[in-house]
């Protein structure tokens, strides 16, 4: 058994996880976001009734393998300490930490929509864009602890012959990104970015939910917006799949609530990849709020790859 915590900006979702994925003693406590000592103390208290049981954590951040520091934008208080080392010392148990998008991909590969596949790319279409790459039941390690982050690195490029900034902005949806670059997929494909894209393409201020509903009933302006969205998002995902060759892509996040969006994106991606297939690649994820905790449980060898 493992102790697993899905760390959000508001709450720590905590449970005891059995090898078959059963959750027990599940409960939530507020997340101390600005105080590292309070954060560690909260997890120490959660772990106290289970001496020696390993602790696995899913967090919206990345652990630097060289320093052990975790960069987590919504929990700034922990960013200057070697979190795993400190938690292990204070809780007297082994500790593993994983990115929440990676944990989502692990969970869907082990228990969810991608069960039975050895090469899985998990895609999150939420407020922002995220992903995780799983091979044989384990996250593929990357430079600086990062893999699967298709949301960052430019996909929208200014036409080379255009020099005037206003003309560029009118021609392509080139927006600044929070990572410091411009034109990243995250700037147009996430829920908030879709709302900005809708304005850029000539629409009125609408929520992403409304834009999708209008698109689903054939609204002309929403269809124009979603055509741009589909072009860039499918191109970025096709690049990823051509490189890593995943046979299934479980999709989560608020935008995945539109079955039509997932189906349409799947067709667009399959039109762009080098290996033609008549079988859907993109599937709506099925684990919901359990994905973080279950994925955290899959971070180590305790819950190993099972293709059945």
Structure report:
The protein is α/β, with parallel strands linked by helices. Helix content is 35%, strand content 19%. It has 10 helices and 12 strands. The chain has helices spanning 36-47, 83-91, 100-110, 165-171, 186-189, 191-200, 208-216, 220-244, 259-272, 291-297; strands at 2-7, 11-17, 23-30, 55-59, 62-63, 70-71, 95-99, 119-125, 129-135, 138-139, 249-252, 282-284. It has a 5-stranded mixed β-sheet, with helices on both faces. A 5-stranded mixed β-sheet has the order 10-9-8-11-12, with helices on both faces. A two-stranded antiparallel sheet has the order 5-6. A hairpin with a 5-residue loop joins β2 and β3 (23-30). The two termini are 21 Å apart.
Mean pLDDT rating: 93
Enumerate how many helices there are, as a single number: 10
User: What's the main sheet like?
Assistant: 5 strands, mixed
Count of individual beta strands: 12
Head-to-tail CA distance between termini = 21 Å
Strand content: 15-25%
Widest β-sheet, arrangement of strands: 3-2-1-4-7
From the helix content, strand content and strand pairing, which structural class follows? alpha/beta
What is the H-and-E element order? EEEHEEEHEHEEEHHHHHEHEH
Assembly state (oligomeric) = single chain
Helicity, as a percent range? 25-40%
Shape: globular
**Which residue ranges are poorly predicted, with pLDDT under 50 across at least 5 consecutive positions?**
304-308
Report the radius of gyration as a whole number of Å. Answer: 20 Å
């Amino acid at each position: 058994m493992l102790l697993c915590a899905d760390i959000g900006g508001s709450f720590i979702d905590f449970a005891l996880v059995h090898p078959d994925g059963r959750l027990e003693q599940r409960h939530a406590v507020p997340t101390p976001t600005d105080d590292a000592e309070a954060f560690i103390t909260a997890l120490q208290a959660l772990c106290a009734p289970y001496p020696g049981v390993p602790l696995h954590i899913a967090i919206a951040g990345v652990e630097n393998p060289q320093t052990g520091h975790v960069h987590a934008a919504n929990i700034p208080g922990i960013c200057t300490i070697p979190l795993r080392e400190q938690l292990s010392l204070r809780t007297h148990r082994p500790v593993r930490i994983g990115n929440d998008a990676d944990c989502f991909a692990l969970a869907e590969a082990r228990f969810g929509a991608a069960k039975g596949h050895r090469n899985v790319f998990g895609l999150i279409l939420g407020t922002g864009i995220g992903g995780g790459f799983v091979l044989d039941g384990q996250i593929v390690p990357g430079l600086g602890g990062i893999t699967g982050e298709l949301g960052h690195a430019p996909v929208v490029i200014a036409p080379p012959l255009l020099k005037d900034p206003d003309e560029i902005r009118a021609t392509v949806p080139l927006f600044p990104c929070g990572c410091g670059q411009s034109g990243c997929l995250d700037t147009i494909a996430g829920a908030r970015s879709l709302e900005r894209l809708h304005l850029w393409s000539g629409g009125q201020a609408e929520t992403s939910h409304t834009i999708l509903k209008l698109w689903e009933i054939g609204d002309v302006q929403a269809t124009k917006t979603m055509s741009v969205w589909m072009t860039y998002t499918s191109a970025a995902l096709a690049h990823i799949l051509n490189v890593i060759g995943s046979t299934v892509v479980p999709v989560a996040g608020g935008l995945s609530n539109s079955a039509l969006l997932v189906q349409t994106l799947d067709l667009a991606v399959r039109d762009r990849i080098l290996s033609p297939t008549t079988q859907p690649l993109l599937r709506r994820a099925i684990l919901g709020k359990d994905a973080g905790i279950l994925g955290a449980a899959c971070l180590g060898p305790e819950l190993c790859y099972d293709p059945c």
